[in-house]
Design a protein that fits this description.
- 46% of the residues lie in helices and 9% in strands.
- Helix 6 crosses helix 10, helix 24 runs parallel beside helix 26 and helix 43 runs antiparallel to helix 44.
- The longest helix is centred in the first third of the chain and has 20 residues, at 366-385.
- With 1309 residues, it is an alpha/beta fold.
- Among the domains are: 1-101, Alpha-Beta Plaits; 102-385, Rossmann fold (3-Layer(aba) Sandwich); 397-620, 3-Layer(aba) Sandwich (Rossmann fold); 623-687; 714-867, no CATH class.
- It is built from 62 helices and 22 strands.
- Mean pLDDT is 87; it is low at 1-23.
């Protein structure tokens, strides 16, 4: 080959042949290598350049854009290298190889075959690091990311699956002119990674991040989570795992680095990651945790250094070197600032290297083995987890509804449960019963066992292994909930279960819960926003969940895992088990083929004869697991005679992990005292084999019995789990506390540190209580196991409280003690003259105030219900004065965020007793007052009297007491016109409704400000018994309309209360087709909500017009079709409703179904004769609506039926234009594949490309450009895609269009 072209170019090189000559052999990056070249050809080409000696091509990989390859090449140290080398037959720089040693931005080190490519691994270097050199062997050329890692990422067929890339950025310290901060660095990474999309999709991503690089990744993810851009949402979904290497989450030692930066512009970046810059890093950590999502959505691994690093010093010639005094640059605590469920050895690992060297590995390096195994597993899980469907984009109403379902500790119990010790629980996957359940088409599995047998750990293990089961599929919908008997109310009740499950469903398949979202929106319109104005009810949520199951099963199989059913209470546990069973039994056989339900529970209270249930008894199977657990604990502490001790403990544990755990604690304590083997053996044998006797032993070992009893009271009966600092104040302010201020209380016993308080909790409980880190990073105090709480409630309290004769008395005395502590706390001098505080500020200054202000009434009610006298309450609040009571109400008003929990300032003790159910308090007041008439009728600022509060709260005994005075005004209405009878009817308190009616002094048809009557309230909420009582009087106006025109029948039909609808119809006085102010009948409401049984009831009367239309001319058919209620559609069509009937906008039912994305409904309507190409008044077709709303399944279905792909609306908008404008990448791809006109113009001259450019939809633009969209097309204002993108600030689009313009003008290589 002639070199004349090369010599000529070299002489004309802009650098004049004066290239840099590195002192040691560096690795260079060479970009622009043609795709058809291999390593040999590149190496030969370089070697033929006469001035270059011995080039060695170490890697060659296709770059992410696919246009060329990138190589890493090692040159001789003495080589003089140009920055560009023209390719043969070129002669100009546009077709040249580009050389650089800097490795900035993305560099591909390895790219697998396209069909095998499953995951992307992206490595990012740290502070003052080099994208390539930071990961290279010290004093060698081995680079593990290039030379080893790609070849370890293989599938079951041995095919390479991972593309490995590095990302470089400027983070140098000396003489830097960069003033980038973390946000700038994160934004740059964000912009770069968007370019990895292919057709709008990303491969699963795993990051390897060293030092500062980890903080950059965190910042990138925070930026990503705040974006509403569709491509960003897909990118966020793609990110699964991060391997952090020495990342200073809580800061690093920068003392030696500050002089290097001097007063340069990069000093702020350096100081922001220092150990004392808590504001920047703590804010980042908090927002990063939110951006990551919950357990299972992402995964973090943290590596930390265990060798001190040399620090930076400056020599006499002004040169910096790392030869100073050794220091720990990033502590273990800072490097492993991880989530609670990722604190085990599989997620945290020591690397015995310095901070810089912890990412430098040699070939056959034993430290590398630790890293490789974890990263390989992480990548494998990333591929596995990201196979599931991409989370859909939720509309604003869906997002708000989702928020109303969420609660703070929704996932915390599942996270708190320890993962199974390695080698344990594996037997479950091979258990014959388990395999039969997993293989069956309809399955309910009960994992039963004794308290402490390890049921929760086993169920968590089963949940984690669901994807590995032969019958599992990538598209499975996996739902889970872990009851927590020691948690707050939502963690231990069916309401929390239903909220959590619906939250999971709505987040993944929102279309299945359109009725729930509609109900949420209606409640917000009519009542206000939750939780201040209203709260979800468990039965209505179960109804929504139950109704959604058939719709869900039509799309995806369901696996439901529910732990600790017994911890929600006996009655609820039995009810839920029966609900699960009846749910499976009620489903048609075709649907039940795809649903599996697994729950864990003790042997009691679930009936042992529950038909058709698979059962596994844990303690019969887990002997080997207990042994493995014991041996691991013993081996970790190098206990003598470990094998013999393990055998003895295992044999006596009888399959109960908790027994083994407590016995191990004693053994380890004896081992620390160097006790003999004989003494340890005697100790184990002397410990009672049953748990209750073992717990009783712990009570006998308690030294400060009084303080221990107070702690046990709080742990047993606190309304919610208390934090360490709350427990401190709960113990410091005793029920009989003589102090008047919190300052005095606190001075008697110093809190010390969290560690001091933890030790105190352990000491007072004799190890039966612990402090754990909650998901909100708060130290929560709880019993070590639910069985401990059960023991104390059943018998332990009575043993500790010698003054009580019965268990109920001991519990009642506990509650009264807790209530008095709370009251005394609220009445301390610090709260007498409170300034204006926000809730957050008040709780920061007074940590126990929120609990004390909100919970004393609950404890007082519990003690009252157990027969404990409340006479001292009058004295405590200095009754008849209301000053102290109003001080509490003022404090309560500051801490509650829910308006429903607010206590009116103008309140009295009578009203408090009535609202919270304190009959003994009310009795004491009535016996000691001379102004009964005034007290029982006194109204607060909401004009509510005691009877109103008691009727709403369902306190029957209080209502009787008030009525028995003969002086209460029974029909007294509040400021909204609602009477006690209306409140009782709304809440479903039938006994109170009957009491009030029996007085003969109530107006049964009283109307509130919304014109709701008591019958309306009872019908709306489905209170069948109350409706029956009201109808039986013969005086209730059954057709009374509210201010919006709805009748009781309309309310019952809307909410699917079939029994109430039957009752109302049975009177034969109800107007079945009564229209509201919008012209909607009860049938319209029932069809809209999908209540097929109610629809059938109404139609069967012969009085409901099946084809009725409201003021918008929408019919029950279009309402049902828009919400995918197939059963209702069948009913209506069978009654002769015209399938092509149109509304005021001339839209058909099929048009609505298409717009809502219900492909099954579209098929059904089409099979019944509905036209696929019908157009409305705006000339939009079903395809146009589906495309505009991003309904891919419907678009695909319609295109298969050969509808007009270029159908134009009134404004000449095509489906492609509508989809492009809204950024629906998948729809755009479908339309383009069907030949949609890529340059079709609307009336204003805008093309799909102009539409997408205006909104900044980069992925859509890439698709359009690939189909030769006209980039120069102008709208009626003369705007082009580039000018429009520039105008609206879409920089990514601008860069994309400019790059396209450059490449389109070049000739092919």
């Amino acid at each position: 080959m002639s070199l004349s072209w090369w010599s000529q170019w070299w002489k004309q090189s802009p650098s004049g042949g004066n290239e840099h000559a590195p002192k040691k052999a560096p690795t260079y990056r060479i970009r622009g290598v043609p795709n058809d070249w291999d390593k040999d050809r590149l190496e030969t080409f370089l070697a033929e350049r006469g001035f270059i000696s011995r080039p060695s091509v170490r890697s060659l990989a296709i770059e992410f854009h696919g246009r060329s390859q990138t190589a890493t090449v090692l040159f001789d140290a003495t080589s003089r290298l140009p920055l560009k080398i023209p390719l043969p037959d070129s002669g100009d720089e546009s077709h040249s190889l580009a050389l650089d040693p800097g490795f900035l931005s993305i560099t591909s080190l390895f790219t697998p075959c396209q069909q095998d490519h499953k995951v992307d691994i992206i490595a990012i270097s740290g502070l003052s690091g080099h994208a390539f050199g930071s990961f290279k062997e010290r004093n060698g050329e081995y680079m593990w990311l290039r030379d080893s890692l790609p070849h370890a990422m293989v599938d079951e067929n041995g095919k390479n699956t991972a593309r490995v890339m590095i990302y470089g950025y400027d983070s140098s310290l000396p003489n830097s002119d960069s003033f980038q901060n973390l946000e700038d660095l994160g934004t740059a990474l964000h912009f770069t990674l968007r370019m990895l999309a292919v057709d709008g999709k990303f491969k699963p991503i795993v990051f390897i991040a060293h030092s500062l690089g980890g903080l950059v990744v965190k910042q990138f993810l925070m930026s990503l989570s705040n974006s509403s851009d569709e491509l960003d949402k897909r990118l966020r979904r793609a990110v699964y795992g991060i391997a952090f290497f020495g990342v200073p989450h809580d800061g690093m030692d920068i003392r030696s680095l500050i002089p290097m930066a001097g007063n340069g512009p990069n000093r702020f970046l350096l100081e922001s990651i220092g150990s004392y810059s808590s504001q920047v890093l703590s804010t980042q950590q908090r927002e990063f945790s939110q951006a990551l999502g919950g357990q299972g959505e992402t995964e973090l691994i943290s590596f930390y250094e265990t060798r001190m690093s040399p620090t930076a010093v400056k020599d006499d010639e002004g040169r910096w070197s790392m030869t100073g005094e050794p220091a720990i640059l990033v502590s273990k605590a800072s490097a492993t600032h991880c989530r609670p469920w990722e604190s085990g050895p599989e997620h945290t690992c020591a690397i015995h290297r310095t901070h810089s060297d912890m990412v430098k590995f040699a070939d056959q390096d034993p430290e590398y083995d630790k890293v490789l195994g974890r990263i390989a597993s992480l990548a494998k899980r990333a591929v596995h987890m990201r196979r599931s469907p991409i989370q859909p984009s939720l509309s604003q109403p869906e997002q708000e509804c989702l928020k109303s379902l969420a609660f703070e500790r929704m996932q915390s119990r599942g996270n708190d449960i320890d993962r199974a010790v390695k080698g344990t629980c594996e037997w479950l996957l091979k258990h014959e019963t388990y395999m039969s359940w997993a293989a069956t088409h309809q399955g309910l599995l009960w994992i039963k066992g004794k308290p402490g047998a390890g049921k929760s750990t086993l169920l968590k293990f089963a949940l984690s292994k669901q994807r590995d089961m032969p019958s599992a599929a990538d598209r499975d919908l996996v739902l889970s909930f872990f009851f927590h008997g020691r948690g707050d109310a939502l963690q231990r009740t069916p309401l929390g279960l239903f909220r959590s499950l619906l939250h999971q469903v709505l987040k993944q398949i929102p279309g299945a819960l359109s009725d729930l979202v509609d109900s949420y929106q209606e409640k917000c319109r009519e009542i206000g926003a939750p939780p201040e104005a209203w709260q979800w009810h468990p039965e209505e949520l179960w109804h929504f969940l139950e109704a959604s199951i058939p719709r869900l099963l039509g799309a995806r199989p369901i696996w439901l895992f529910v732990d600790a059913l017994d911890e929600c209470g006996e009655a609820d546990a039995v009810d839920l088990a029966m609900k699960f069973k009846s749910l499976l039994d009620s489903l048609p056989s075709s649907a039940t083929q795809n649903i599996h339900i697994c729950f864990s529970c003790r042997h009691y209270p679930i009936p042992p004869d529950l038909d058709g249930v698979f059962e596994i008894c844990v303690e019969d199977e887990n002997g080997d697991d207990v042994s493995a657990y014991v041996r691991q604990r013993l081996s970790a502490t190098f206990v003598r005679e470990a094998s013999s001790i393990a055998d003895l403990i295992t044999s006596r544990a009888a399959g109960v992990f908790m027994w083994a755990r407590l016995v191990l604690e004693r053994v380890l304590r004896l081992e620390r005292q160097r006790a003999s083997w004989g003494k340890i053996q005697d100790e184990i044998c002397s410990i009672p084999p049953d748990m209750d006797s073992l717990y009783l032993e712990h009570i006998q070992r308690m030294e400060d019995k009084a303080a221990s009893l107070r702690l046990i009271h709080w742990l047993c009966f606190a309304v919610r789990p208390l934090s360490l600092v709350e427990v401190y104040w709960a113990l410091a302010v005793d029920a009989d506390c003589p102090h008047k201020s919190l300052t005095e209380c606190g001075s008697t016993e110093d809190y010390g540190t969290d560690e001091d308080m933890e030790r105190r909790v352990i000491a007072l409980s004799c190890g039966l209580a612990e402090s754990i880190i909650s998901t909100s990073q708060t130290n929560i105090v709880q019993f070590i196991h639910q069985s401990v709480k059960d023991f104390f409630v059943d018998r332990g309290l009575l043993v500790m409280d010698s003054s009580s004769a019965t268990v109920d008395e001991a519990i009642g005395r506990a509650h009264i003690s807790l209530s008095r502590t709370c009251i005394r706390y609220c009445l301390m001098e610090e709260f007498c003259q409170l300034k204006t505080f926000s809730s957050h500020e008040l709780e920061a200054q007074f940590p126990f105030v929120s609990y004390a202000a909100t919970a004393w009434t609950t404890h007082a009610h519990q003690s009252d219900s157990l027969g404990v006298s409340q006479d001292d309450l009058l004295q405590l609040f200095r009754w008849p004065s209301s000053d102290l009571l109003r001080q509490w109400a003022r404090v309560l008003d500051l801490v509650v965020t829910n308006g429903l929990d607010r206590q009116p300032r103008k309140t009295t003790l009578v009203q408090v007793a009535a609202r919270y159910g304190l009959p003994r308090v009310l009795s004491a007041i009535l016996q000691n007052t001379r102004r009964i008439r005034k007290d029982v009728n006194l109204q607060d600022e909401d004009s509510r009297g005691p009877l109103s509060w008691a009727a709403e709260s369902g306190h029957e005994s209080i209502v009787k007491m008030l009525l028995d005075t003969g002086m209460v005004e029974i029909d007294l209405s509040d400021c909204f016109g609602q009477t006690p009878l209306a409140f009782a009817a709304e809440s479903g308190h039938e006994a109170i409704v009957k009491l009030l009616l029996d007085t003969g002094e109530v107006n049964i048809n009283s109307l509130d400000s919304h014109h709701h009557s008591p019958l309306s309230w009872a019908s709306e909420n489905g209170h069948e018994a109350v409706v029956r009582i009201l109808l039986d009087t013969g005086q209730a106006d059954i057709n009374l309309k509210d201010k919006f025109g709805q009748t009781p029948l309309s309310f019952a039909a809307e909410n699917g209360h079939e029994a109430v609808v039957r009752q109302l119809l049975a009177t034969e006085q109800v107007v079945v087709d009564a229209k509201d102010n919008q012209g909607q009948t009860p049938l319209c409401y029932a069809a809209y909500r999908g209540h097929a049984a109610v629809v059938k009831l109404l139609l069967d009367t012969g009085q409901a017009e099946a084809g009725v239309k409201d003021k918008e001319e929408e019919s029950p058919l279009s309402l049902a079709a828009a919400n995918a209620h197939e059963a209702v559609v069948h009913l209506l069509l069978d009654r002769g409703v015209e399938v092509e009937s149109r509304d005021a906008a001339s839209r058909t039912a099929l048009s609505w179904a298409a717009a809502s994305g219900h492909d099954g409904m579209v098929k059904l309507l089409h099979s019944k004769g509905a036209q696929l190409d019908s157009k409305d008044k705006m000339r939009r077709s079903p395809l146009s609506w589906a495309a505009a709303n991003g309904r891919e399944a419907v678009v695909a279905l319609l295109l298969e039926e050969d509808v007009d792909v270029n159908s134009k609306s009134l404004f000449n908008q095509t489906p492609l234009s509508l989809a492009a404008a809204n950024g629906h990448v998948g729809v755009v791809a479908l339309l383009l594949d069907k030949g949609a006109a890529v340059n079709a113009k609307e009336n204003d001259g805008r093309t799909p490309l102009l539409r997408a450019a205006r909104r900044g939809h980069e992925a859509v633009i890439r698709l359009l450009l690939a189909k030769n969209a006209d980039v120069d097309a102008e709208d009626q204002d003369g705007g082009t895609a580039l000018s429009v993108a520039t105008k609206y600030g879409h920089q990514g689009v601008v860069e994309l269009l400019k790059a396209h313009a450059m490449t389109s003008t070049e000739s092919p290589q």
